[in-house]
Write a structure and sequence with these properties.
Strand content: under 5%
Mean pLDDT: 81
Helix content: over 70%
Number of domains: 2
Shape: globular
Number of helices: 15
CATH class of the largest domain: Mainly Alpha
Low-confidence stretches: none
CATH superfamily of the largest domain: MetI-like
Length: about 325
């Protein structure tokens, strides 16, 4: 197991290097440092001196990969890529193009993101599993049929519809919760109630349909028939046998998503005005802040790799028969 984890970590480092390089090339293939300076200063009619000053202040006055005017190792170190992207491998995010400390922004915005993501993750998983188990318990009945129809309809609807409909119904029409915003203390409940509810409803359709298929596949196996032959009730068969043996594919999606909870929700945070990492990333993309974008992409990739390793390790806990050599 230790050797397997070390190999996966080594592969992860290689993937992070590739992601870092690809993000750098992709961003500068779209925008040059001059374009970034004009956008940051505000407008196309900007003097050349102002553009050069902006580039010098932020380190964008150097070549991208190779500095032919330097000597020795400075040909490679005195470049934009080395000074702005290589430090990411040490999780040194540096400063944004606006001059703000990215690491400090991440620490401050991580709390609101987790406040939204953790309840959504836990409650959404519980609701989806419970709903799919109910459909399996009443399989081949009208309840099961209309439940599947509801799941298909829900997964066919865009998540933006749930957000807009929820804001219109609960905020504008019923005036039960604020339209958007965020606050600390106990007021956080009224600001997060609607985003959490919308997120749970939007993921109920696809997840319940997927879990229902898993449970139906397990319920027809020999060990389930043996459990019924021993006189166990259908409820015990579902929870003690079917649910436990269907945990491996469920763990693939749930455990691997745990580290990504820190990244927040891009759409939900933007629409509900939550100052988390999701809205931070959207604002950086809109403002074409390369430093923030490449930092968030790199952080998201690192967390995703950790999540996949955690999912593999969790397999051995859920099923002792699984071993990694």
């Amino acid at each position: 197991m230790i050797g397997y984890v070390l190999r996966r970590l080594l592969y992860g480092v290689l993937i992070l290097i590739g992601v870092n390089l690809f993000t750098f090339i992709l961003f500068f293939a779209v925008n040059t440092p001059d374009d970034m300076a004009r956008l940051a200063i505000g407008g196309q009619r900007v003097s050349t001196d102002a553009i050069e000053k902006w580039k010098v202040d932020r380190g964008y006055d150097k070549p991208l990969f190779l500095n032919t005017q330097a000597e020795g190792t400075k040909k490679y170190t005195d470049t934009i890529f080395y000074q702005r992207s290589v430090p990411l491998l040490k999780f040194d995010f540096g400063s944004s193009d606006g001059g703000r400390d990215i690491s400090r922004e991440i620490r401050e915005r991580m709390g609101p993101s987790l406040a939204l993501a953790l309840p959504t993750f836990v409650l959404g998983l519980m609701v989806s599993v419970a709903f799919s188990l109910m459909l399996v318990f009443f399989r081949t009945t009208r309840l099961d049929f209309w439940g599947v129809v509801l799941c298909v309809v829900m997964l066919s609807i865009s998540g933006l519809f749930y957000i807009i409909a929820g804001q219109w119904l609960f905020s504008k029409l019923l005036r039960l919760v604020p339209y958007s915003g965020f606050s600390g203390g106990w007021d956080i409940v009224k600001f997060l109630a609607l985003p959490i509810l919308v997120a749970i409803i939007s993921r109920l359709g696809p997840e319940s349909r997927f879990y229902r298929s898993l449970f139906l596949e397990e319920i027809g196996k020999d060990y389930v028939r043996t459990a019924r032959a021993k006189g166990l009730s259908e409820r015990i068969v579902l929870f003690r046998h079917v649910l436990r043996n269907a945990m491996l594919p469920i763990l693939t999606g749930t455990v691997s998503a745990l580290p990504l909870l820190f990244m927040g929700s891009l759409i939900a945070e933007s629409f509900f005005g939550i100052p988390g990492l999701g809205s931070y990333t959207i604002d950086a993309i809109s403002g074409q802040d390369f430093s923030v974008v490449r930092a968030m992409v790199f952080l998201g990739s690192a967390l995703y790799i950790v999540g996949l390793i955690m999912a593999d390790i969790s397999y051995t806990l859920a099923d002792p028969r699984v071993r990694f050599e």
